[in-house]
Amino acid sequence: KMTQQMRDLQLAQARKPPGPSSPNAAKRLYRNLSGKFRVNYTSFDESSLVGRGEKEKLRKSYLFQGSAALFEAVELQDLDRIQELLKQYSPEELDLNTPNSEGLLPLDIAIMTNNAPIARALLQAGAKESPHFMSLESRSLHLSTLVREAEQRVNELTAQVVNEAPNTDCSEKEKQLKAWEWRFRLYKRMKAGFEHARVPDAPTNVHLSVASSSSVQVTFWEPLSINSAVVTKYKVEWSCSPTFLPPLGEAVIDKLKNLHFTIQGLVSGTAYYVRVSAYNMKGWGPPQASVPPCAIPSNWREYDGRTPRRRGQAEALDHLLGQVKTVHQHCICHEPCKNQPQSRKHSVSKSLKHLFHPGSKFLKTLKRGLYLTAIFYKDDNILVTHEDQIPVVEIDDTYSCLLMQDFLWFTKVSCMWDEILWLRQCVTVSQSSCSCILQTRFKMLLAISQMQGLLGIQDLGQVFFEPVKDKQGNILIVTLKEVKTNQNFESVRWVPICKLQTSRKSVSSPEEPTALDTLLISVQDKLAYHQRSSHALTPGLYLGYLKLCSAVDQIRVLVPEQLPNILCHVKIRSNPNISREEWEWLQKMASAEEPIPAEPDADTSQNPLFHELQVAIKELMTLVNIPLQEAKDFRLYSQEVLDFGDQVSFLLLLPPSDDVCTAPGQNNPYTPRSGFLTLPLQIFELGEER
């Protein structure tokens, strides 16, 4: 009996219609609808007496009304309302490609009334034309039928209004008559728009470029004249023959947000011809051949057959580190490691409670020495101890002057936060030599372990490119890490940065602030640097400017503040690939030891890269505040193209050899405008790798 009851219960549950994915989803959809579609509201709370089936019916009703609202907005040519609906609902919720009772889609109405802005908005949202219009004749017949039926309905309602006595029913008939008269005019306008339209002109600015050793990319613009009909798709064709006989392939592009297409799977060294044509409701327009008319898939590496510089480097470094670990695995220092877990599994929320434990060893004040501080931030909040202090631990209380080499060594250690215990134990063995450098670095590793233990977090983030110092002899090494999780940590104190800055009681004078006060004053600048240093360039080919300056113990490199992990640069073009032909031209110029000519000659007039470089060099010289006439002594680095992945590549512009690196005391007549900074070369290399 019990088994039968369970079966009956499962069967009853299976028959229940599914409820909405969220009880508030229908409420949000309802509120976003236009006021004229609102109905009496019924509570959508979980405690509502309305059953799941009723909720689903109401949800579908609101979605249906949203679809109806979209059709009405297109018919009324209300672009603002259309954009609002497309923002509030997904294409699936609006049934964007489901025809109405007249067999029309929203895009059909937009293009046949020749409303280009609305048509473009619908196309970008994924709208399609009706598949029922298989030919021009079928579309013309359908429009004629709609016009004839609307006209017939208008005549019928007109006769009823004229012949009937005035009453309530007559008033309703008059409303229907006005609605059908408006629809009759709409259908006639659509029919006239279709009859007067012609096929579109050819696309403009069809440009062909080499994308790789097995692909080419074509970019194009809309036709200058669309002949009273919106273009809804494009066709790209390619062939090995200029007559396109036989054709090798074609692709139809109906996503018109970006007008470009990459033809892949081609044979390196073979010339391919490409052309593009546009389509509207009247059919395909004439094709437009690309400029240049053909392209040969290739890459600059084919010039001398060289392999990528970084190929296998990461694997080689991992292998080298493994060998070092193998050498140390039998030493006495490694024995304690066997009893330690490989990675600490503490959750952040649990381990961060140590911040507020009375026995924590975070410092409140500094006493002339070397210290480590870790800044964790989320949005505009910063993580502090239970005493509203940024976490600080001591490295060495007798260290009053941080050597640059020690600081740079610390930045390299930041790439191995998970290996601190192993590094610390191996340095312990080497400490018998009593080297001051080794002792300092061992203390650095101890401080890192202490910070990791107190926070319960292995990854302390990225090291800021310079320590914070004060006149009292305090030095702060700063690490920065952004916490992106939305989890609410228990007993953890996140304090707004502005509140921490205003509430901290300084113990120093404004003329001689302590390192902690200086850090707090400049913390927002440091967070901005940290965020900008993780930004990536958009795909493309760039022209970079290499400028160095040397000091006694370091070399620094000029970088933009907005992107400090990249050299000063301007974008040459969106295609990152340098073809073999382009590289040969650059090699020819380099071997002739001539600057890029100001005016094109016979060899360069048809070279797109020449014109692109001219524009880029002028822009770059303006950016770094160097007179253009000085650029005649600059040279392009011709040994290689610097590839950063598959999507970003650099050509380097170098000053004369005597000016590449400015020596101490040497006067630099051309100083960049504001917006630049110089980073230690090792810091820049680490940031580039990140």
Automatic annotation (TrEMBL):
Annotated SUPFAM superfamilies: Ankyrin repeat (SSF48403), Fibronectin type III (SSF49265)
GO annotation, cellular component aspect: spindle
InterPro entries linked: ANKFN1 (IPR039269), Ankyrin_rpt-contain_sf (IPR036770), FN3_dom (IPR003961), FN3_sf (IPR036116), Ig-like_fold (IPR013783)
Pfam families in the cross-refs: fn3
One GO process term, biological-process aspect: regulation of establishment of bipolar cell polarity
Domain Fibronectin type-III: 202-299
Region Disordered, residue ranges: 1-25
Name recorded for this polypeptide: ANKF1 protein
Native source species: Neopipo cinnamomea
Gene from which the chain derives: Ankfn1
